[in-house]
Amino acid sequence: MAPAHRSLIGVNAPAVALPNYDGEEFKLTPGEGGMPTVIFFYPKAGSYGCTKEACQFRNAIAEKEAFQADNVQIVGISPDSVEKQKTFVEKNKLTYPVLSDSEGTAAKAYGIGKGLFGLADVARTTIIIDAKGIIRDTIEGTLNYGAHAKFVTKWLQKLESEKEKPQEAPAAETAAAAETVAEPTAAEESAPAEVPAQAES
Questions:
Q1: Most Cβ neighbours (<10 Å): which of 17, 21, 188, 195?
Q2: What is the CATH number of domain 4-164?
Q3: Distance of CA 88 to CAs 22, 53, 118, 137, Å?
Q4: Catalytic annotation, pick one of 50, 60, 139, 152
Q5: Per residue in 97-124, pLDDT tens?
Q6: pTM listed for this prediction
Q7: What angle do CA 144, 145, 146 make, to 5 degrees?
Q8: CB neighbours of 5 closer than 8 A, spacing ≥ 6?
Q9: What is the pLDDT of residues 133-167, one digit of tens each?
């Protein structure tokens, strides 16, 4: 059975409000700023895998062009308390918002289940949201923490290439337009055919 978050692909990403690592409310409304949003849910601040993953995103923001091209919003969320998140952020010098979802509000909204056969409060899951606020894809992998930043890099490159392509009219609209142009009006049908002028002798 597919994880619940997979059923959200193609729909508007839910807005949530959670405390950040300073205890201040952070309103996360994907699409509001007209930029792609990446939300990564991780099981436990300070654990080996979560630290590696969080630092990979930190490094990607500083080093990878795909993370800088469109002012991408990266947000980390876990069930940890504000205090634990603050320690986690400061120790690892994280440069993006990290939110505390101690009551599971965001996890529920995004269909994030438990990980490690129920041993982890949330499964390690990353959500890709485009600039219009539409969920485009998700990936889950509690043990494979290294796959998430790579997954995001490829998706950001894809979103950037979509933005650069010219907008094309749907095939049905194009065909309809062609038919409209080709079809003569009633006035044109009733008008006599033009007779070529004869050359003067």
A1: 21
A2: 3.40.30.10
A3: 12, 12, 23, 27
A4: 50
A5: 999 999 999 999 999 988 766 666 899 9
A6: 0.78
A7: 90
A8: 110, 111, 112, 125, 127, 138, 140
A9: 999 999 998 778 889 999 999 999 999 888 776 55
